[in-house]
Specification:
Layout: E1 7-11, E2 17-18, E3 34-38, H1 76-82, E4 91-96, H2 102-115, E5 120-124, H3 129-139, E6 146-150, H4 154-164, E7 168-172, H5 189-206, E8 209-215, E9 234-239, E10 246-254, E11 262-268, E12 271-274, H6 278-282, E13 292-299, E14 302-314, E15 322-325, H7 329-342, E16 350-356, H8 368-380, E17 388-390, E18 393-394, E19 400-401, H9 406-415, E20 420-424, H10 425-430, E21 439-443, H11 446-453
Parallel strand pairs: 4-8, 4-9, 5-6, 5-7, 7-8, 15-16, 17-20, 20-21
Antiparallel strand pairs: 1-2, 1-3, 9-10, 10-11, 11-12, 13-14, 14-16, 18-19
């Protein structure tokens, strides 16, 4: 019978440890900060474990550099976010709100990898094997090399992995797994962290890729996936409302690729489906109205054309309301102050509502100019110049600053049938003569940009 490991309760703030749990830490006085952890044996008890075969330090210039082998997940969007595919021995954490589509995506990817000849082990702690089969039938995710087991005991899971030797195994979800040598309940900080460390050991030792699914709660509990972010190799976050049509997958940490890439999926009756041409999809329902502007944004290496909508209306309430969807509301307040101070636009006394169509979140400064033009267009109730895209960063003094990858943005706009582009003056000079079939305008300040976007003076 395996010897039970010793545990202690350690304060996460000051490091005070005790054998019993207490609500208040005697060391620092913090409440609910004591967490159960495994006690590391002293050096004399673990002497000789791994010391004989310890790897010696090497000069960094003498270390051999080899391209890490990757295999495709079968999803172009997921491969893009991962940096080109899955690396054997890596550990990927996929997190998001319940119902956003994490299990559906991983089950479909498991089937695609299994059809390609790689063995996949899908471990579920939330559903039975029969429920997984029913969902697989709906998602058309049936494959001979896709193995499914319903298990929550981590020791049993490691035994399955050792026996089956899959190329990829998936844990759904990490909050349901537990180690028998830890007395705390599944989902606690100690269970989640120790289970993740054991899974990482299995992945690195056997060279098996691991996908771990985790849930994010509105309360941001410490037992959530944020505890694991420093352990895993890659962290992928799902964005999008549960009832929304589109989902966005972002990498917030990636040891084997860029964190600027973005994957787009559409929820259908067969689960999440890749969206290869997102710009065309986002603009398919666009209506030519005042307050509607197209901004060419760049996510990693992918250019996206997104519609920014603004509604500015007089209000009898004081103070006026500022509401933003998929844009930081503080950013809207800053741009409104620039419009009122530098352009003398009396917009401060009106309600302002800003929305990004499709649910894509705009974080880059290149969208500043488009937001300003959209709000000014709605305030003046005047249509902007037709078939025009707008991008540029707006400073507090009203100047329009250059943006990166301007040529890529304009090329994407031309591909989708736009005939004009409003850019910062520096980017305008760089692109002169490169797009003869497009009308490109340059603006030094926000006032010139508004006159160009809406030919009549406001």
């Amino acid at each position: 019978m395996a010897k039970k490991k010793k545990t202690a309760y350690v304060c996460q703030n000051c490091g005070y440890d005790t054998l019993k749990w207490m609500g208040k830490c005697p060391g620092c006085g913090a409440w609910n900060s004591l967490v159960e952890e495994i006690v590391t044996p002293p050096a004399e008890e673990r002497r000789g474990v791994g010391t004989g075969n310890a790897e010696r330090p090497q000069a960094i210039g003498e270390i051999a550099v080899e391209d890490l082998p990757r295999f495709s997940t079968g999803s172009g969007e997921l491969d893009r976010v991962l940096g080109g595919g899955v690396i054997p021995g890596s550990m990927v954490l996929i997190v998001g709100d319940p119902g956003v589509g994490k299990s559906s995506l991983t089950l479909r990817v498991s089937a695609d990898i299994a059809r390609a000849g790689q063995r996949v082990l899908y471990v579920t702690g939330e559903e039975s094997a029969r429920q997984i089969r029913m969902r697989a039938d709906r998602l058309q995710a049936i494959a001979d090399d896709l193995l499914v087991v319903s298990e929550t005991n981590l020791d049993a899971i490691c035994a399955h992995v050792e026996r089956e030797q899959p190329a990829l195994f998936i844990i759904d979800s990490i909050q349901t797994m537990y180690r028998p040598d830890i007395e705390s309940a599944p989902g606690s900080v100690s269970q989640v962290r120790e289970c993740a460390m054991e899974l990482m050991r299995v992945a690195k030792t056997a060279g098996i890729a691991v996908f771990v699914i985790g849930h994010v709660t509105k309360e941001g509990s410490l037992a959530g996936p944020r505890v694991l972010e420093h352990i895993v190799d890659t962290v992928l976050y799902f964005e999008g409302e549960r009832n929304a049509e589109y989902r966005v997958l972002r990498a917030v940490k990636n040891r084997f690729g860029s964190t600027n890439e973005l994957g787009l999926f559409e929820m259908r009756d067969v689960g999440l489906v890749d969206v290869p041409d997102a710009s065309k999809l986002f603009l398919s329902e666009r209506a030519m109205e005042s307050g509607s502007i197209i901004v060419p944004t760049v996510e990693g290496t992918r250019p996206l054309l997104v519609e920014v909508q603004a509604l500015v209306a007089p209000t009898p309430y004081q103070p006026p309301r500022r509401t933003a969807d998929s844009v930081d509301v503080k950013r809207i307040q800053l741009l409104l102050a620039v419009l009122e101070k530098r352009v003398k636009l009396p917009i401060g006394a009106a309600d302002v509502y800003v929305k990004v169509a499709g649910g894509i979140r705009l974080d880059e400064p290149a969208a500043d100019l488009a937001l300003c033009v959209a709000m000014a267009s709605s305030f003046a109730n005047r249509l902007p110049r037709p078939h025009m895209v707008v991008c540029g960063e707006v400073g507090l003094s009203g100047e329009v600053r250059a943006v990166s990858q301007a040529e890529l943005r304009v090329a994407e706009a031309r591909r989708l049938g736009f005939h004009a582009a409003l850019l910062p003056m520096k980017n305008y000079r760089q692109l002169q003569g490169k797009f003869e079939d497009m009308q490109i305008f340059g603006a030094e300040n926000i006032g010139d940009a508004l006159k160009c976007a809406m030919p009549k003076n406001i």
